[in-house]
Amino acid sequence: MRSLFSLFTLLISLLLPFSAGASQVSLTPTALLGEPTTKAHAVTLINSDDMPVSYQVTAYQWLQKDGVDQLVNTGDVLASPSIISIPPKGRRVVRVVRVSGSGAVGYYRVIFKQLPSPPIENGGRSNVSLLVNHSLPLAFEASTPDVRLSVSLSPDGSGYRLTNTGTTAARVTNIGPASGASWREGALGWVLPGLSKDIPLKPEHRASALTLTVNGQPVTLTVAP
C-alpha cells in the first residue's frame, strides 16, 4: 500500500504545473584586475529578483595544463563574507582579499556558487529556481601588458592552441582567418603567461594565418606548421 501511495504521489507531482526561472543577480566588476601589490577588491552583487538569493564565495588558484583551465584549492585569497544573502531588490558587497603571496604575479578564479532555496508554491504552481554560478577572473600582474602569443593546431586537432610566452595574460575575444570574418566572437578565454589555452573550432575553420582580438587589440598570427 505504501508503494502505491508513493507512486501516486510521484504521478501527482509530475502532473502539477511548475515554472522554473534563474535568479536575476548581476555582479560588478566582472573582472578583478590589479598589480601584484594589490591587497583587495570589492565585488557588488545586485539582486533584481523578488526573492532573496544566497551564494557561497570561494577563490581558487587558476592554472592551465595541456591547454585546459584548471582550478586548484588555495588559501592565498579569501572572500569576506564567504556566505552571503542578497535581499530582494537589494545589494551586498563581498571583499576579495589576498592574504598570502603579495608582490608576486598570480591568477585566480572567484566562484560565486548559488545556494538552493526551497521551492515556493504559488497558486498551485511550483516555482523552482535554476541555480546560476558566477566565475570572476582575478589577476595580480603588471599594469603594462607583455603578451607574446604563438599559435599551432591543438594536439587533438579540435582547434588551435595559443601559447603565451609573455609575462601578463592574454584575454582573447575573437578568432578567425586573417583574410575573412571571425569564426567565433565574444569571450574565448585567457591565455596565462607561460602557459597554453586550446580554442575549439569547427573542422572547416582552418587557415594558415589567424586574426585574434587580444586585450582589445587585433593581432595577426601565422599558424605554426
CATH homology-level superfamily of the largest domain: Immunoglobulins
The CATH top-level class label of the largest domain = Mainly Beta
Radius of gyration: 22 Å
> Can you count the beta strands?
20
Write the layout of secondary structure elements.
Layout: H1 2-15, E1 18-22, E2 25-28, E3 32-34, E4 40-47, E5 53-65, E6 68-73, E7 77-80, E8 83-86, E9 91-98, E10 106-114, E11 120-122, E12 125-130, E13 134-140, E14 149-153, E15 159-164, E16 170-177, E17 184-191, E18 196-200, E19 209-214, E20 217-224
Parallel strand pairs: 1-12, 3-13, 14-20
Antiparallel strand pairs: 2-4, 4-9, 5-6, 5-8, 5-10, 7-9, 10-13, 11-12, 14-15, 15-18, 16-17, 16-19, 19-20
Compact overview of the structure:
The protein is mainly β. Helices cover 6% and strands 56% of the residues.
